[in-house]
Structures are given as C-alpha cells and as structure tokens.
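In the design runs reported in the main text, the only information available to the sequence generator was the tokenized backbone. The following block is the verbatim input for one such run; it is reproduced so that readers can re-run the procedure and compare outputs position by position.
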C-alpha cells in the first residue's frame, strides 16, 4: 500500500533520513521504532510531504507523493495524527469530529460518529464538552477519531502512547487492534517496545535515519543485541 523508497530528507543542511526504504502492506499494523531523534517523526512527515524528501519516492496506491501538497496526500487517503495533538480546543467533541468529515473512500472503512463512539466511549460521554476541558488521553483519542472521520486507507499515528495515563495506554492498544480488525492499515511510531509488540504485526527499527531492522517481534526477540543497540529499554 505504501512504499518508501530510498528517501533522503533534510532540515536545512541537516541530513536526517538517509536513504530510508520500507513497505507497509494493506491490513497490517507496523511499528516504526527508534530512540529519541532517530527520525520517526521525520519519516511520517516525509510521507505527508510536510517535509519534502530531496531524493527518493513515496509510493502510495501506485502514485508517487513526493512533491504533492500535504492536503492532497491527506485527500489521497492517508490520515496523520502528529505528536502534538491538534484538536480545536474551543470546539466541542461533536464539532471536532464534524470538522474531520470526508466522503467515504473505496477500500477504506466508512466511519459514522456512532461507530466511533463505540470505539471511544469516553468521547461519547463528553460529546458536548469543549476540547480544552479534556485530559491528554482524551484529546489523543479525539484527534484519532477526528482523523478517522476522514475515512483514511492508511493511518499514521506518531507516538500514540506518549504522555498519557497507563489505563489510557491500554485503551489505546485495544483501539488500534479494533481499527485493524475493521480493515484499516496502520503505522505507529513508538519508543515503547511493550506497547508496539502488543498492537503491531511487524517492527521497523531506525537509527540516524537508516533502517536497522525489519521483521516480526519474534525475530526481534531472538536478536537482543539489536534491541540493546537501537532501543532504550
Ligand atoms: N524542525 C526541525 N529542524 C531541525 N532539526 C530537526 C527538526 N525536527 C527534528 N529535527 C532533528 O531531526 C532528527 C530526527 O528527529 P525526529 O523528530 O524525526 O525524531 P524522532 O525519532 O521522532 O524522535 P522523538 O522520539 O524524540 O520524537 C533529530 O536529530 C532532530 O533533532
Ligand atoms: Mg518524534
């Protein structure tokens, strides 16, 4: 579904992604792992064209996204939840969800607000609350739900377990499993190996903008030296 091919991305002169390649196949949940500064967020931004790769291709559904404006990347069916949740704090939960609404897309789940409330019961309870009166975890859930209102084929979640209470982290893991069961393809970035293993089918580890590992969690467990070298445990 998504194929990142030898991508090089920079911030000014700083060379961040160094020929990064990987694939995400339809229906799988992939975890992009790596330490602080490894390049996880830059990878997601390079898919969204918020950072424009200087070399390489980002193939999605057979078309190269490199050079497309970010709103077109979103319209082509990639939902993106950045590290810093961006809800509209003065709008209610319902209004935030309506803002995200896009037409149904062939091959992607077509979400209704009622279905999203089944997946995110906290949001249902708080549907008339304004965003600013919600906890960090609830804001994170709302950002994901609003992104799903766009009916994406592929969902990119940048560190969904970061900075939220442990009980919400567990809910978040259940949520991601539900989304996969509904047929969504998901890529998460994570530093939390435990969370990644609980939700993802496969791990991709990067360091210094280069891929260091790509395989199952069983394969990763069989190579503890890789975990020790590239992940903080
Ligand atoms: N806007 C920016 N301008 C310049 N350098 C940046 C910018 N954003 C990130 N970097 C640098 O790019 C490198 C990769 O950062 P990135 O945010 O992609 O890492 P990350 O793996 O997402 O880390 P974290 O786990 O802390 O979120 C780091 O060295 C970082 O300092
Ligand atoms: Mg990051």
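Verbatim output:
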């Amino acid at each position: 579904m998504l194929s990142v091919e030898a991508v090089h991305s920079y911030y000014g002169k700083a060379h961040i992604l160094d020929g990064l390649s990987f694939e995400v196949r339809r229906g799988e949940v992939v975890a992009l792992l790596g330490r602080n500064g490894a390049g996880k967020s830059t990878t997601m931004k390079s898919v969204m064209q918020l950072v424009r790769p200087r070399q390489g291709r980002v193939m999605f559904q057979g078309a190269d996204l490199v050079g497309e404006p970010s709103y077109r990347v979103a319209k082509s069916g990639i939902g993106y939840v950045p590290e810093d949740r961006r809800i509209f704090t003065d709008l209610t939960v319902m209004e935030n969800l309506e803002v995200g609404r896009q037409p149904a897309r062939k091959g992607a789940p077509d979400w209704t607000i009622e279905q999203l409330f089944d997946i995110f019961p906290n949001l249902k309870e708080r549907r008339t609350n304004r965003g600013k009166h919600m906890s960090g975890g609830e804001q994170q859930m709302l950002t994901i739900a609003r992104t799903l209102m766009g009916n994406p084929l592929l969902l990119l979640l940048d560190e969904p377990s970061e900075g939220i209470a442990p009980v919400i982290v567990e809910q978040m893991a259940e949520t991601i499993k539900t989304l996969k069961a509904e047929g969504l393809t998901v890529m998460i970035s994570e530093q939390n190996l435990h969370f990644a293993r609980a939700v993802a089918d496969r791990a991709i580890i990067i360091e210094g903008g280069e891929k260091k590992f790509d395989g199952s969690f069983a394969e990763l467990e069989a190579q503890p030296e890789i975990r020790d070298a590239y992940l903080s445990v």
